[in-house]
Amino acid sequence: MESDAHPAENHALDELTITIVHDNYPWAEGLKTAWGFAAHIAGARRNILFDTGSDGSLLLENLDRLRIDPAGIDALVLSHVHADHAGGLAGLLQANPHVEVYLPASFPDRVKDLARRGGAGVTEVVGPLQICENVHTTGLLGRRIQEQALVIRTDRGGVVLTGCAHPGIVPVVEAAKRLCGQDPLLVMGGFHLEWAMSGKIDRIIAAFRDLGVRYVAPTHCCGEKARQRFEECFGPQFIPVGVGKVLSRGDLL
Fold it and tell me: Is the CATH code 3.60.15.10 the one for domain 17-251?
């Protein structure tokens, strides 16, 4: 792992699969929903889980139904301290006590101690950090609620995974673009727009266009009004998602 504000990997990923394993929006039959968000990332040099959702038991049940072995997860990246993103940590640690956990340094000691007690490695994130080749965290963004996003460098552009985007979804995407040096191919996750006015949503969409965002997959705390507006503006480049949605690089033409 290394801090690197301008990663320079030789070969961007040409294979990538993202599976939403915890969400309050439904998608695939047989999976349970609950408030929160978590996504599994395969195709990089490490198997990565981004956030754990709010319910560890539900997370593990969904992973089982999706045939994702929690013991095979190498790295867990927690976006921020809120329970709908970190609440499933204890459950995951029961299934995989030795996972490497990347969490904001601002997390309370009790959460860090929970991970360490079971044998997990804990990396306290402050600045941008490499998880493995082509996968980085933005480092901590925002002041009141510090949050990190995950950035994946592919041969078609950057993929940005966001938990709740408390620092603002536009600053998050701007930071991700600076970090990977690519236009954003996809922005997926919580955009924190559930109570946003129409004017704010339209300004964010305009900013996404200026930043070169090609595909959007808003979920969790985005809110129905914002999701509908993104769909209107992005058309076929709006990707509806929910728990159980599997998205591969090949879906992003």
Answer: yes
Under 8 Å between Cβ of 126 and 146: no
Q: What is the pLDDT along the chain (253 residues), one digit of tens a residue?
A: 444 444 555 689 999 999 999 999 999 999 999 999 999 999 999 999 999 999 999 999 999 999 999 999 999 999 999 999 999 999 999 999 999 999 999 999 999 999 999 899 999 999 999 999 999 999 999 999 999 999 999 999 999 999 999 999 999 999 999 999 999 999 999 999 999 999 999 999 999 999 999 999 999 999 999 999 999 999 999 999 999 999 999 898 7
Residue spans per domain, the chain = 17-251
* Cα 244 from Cα 217, distance rounded (Å): 14
Q: How many CB atoms lie within 10 A of CB 52?
A: 29
Q: What pTM does this model have?
A: 0.95
Tell me which residue of 101, 95, 132, 131 sits closest to 116, measured CA to CA: 101
Do 123 and 101 touch, CB atoms closer than 8 A?
yes
Q: Which two tokens stand for residue 197?
A: 């006015």
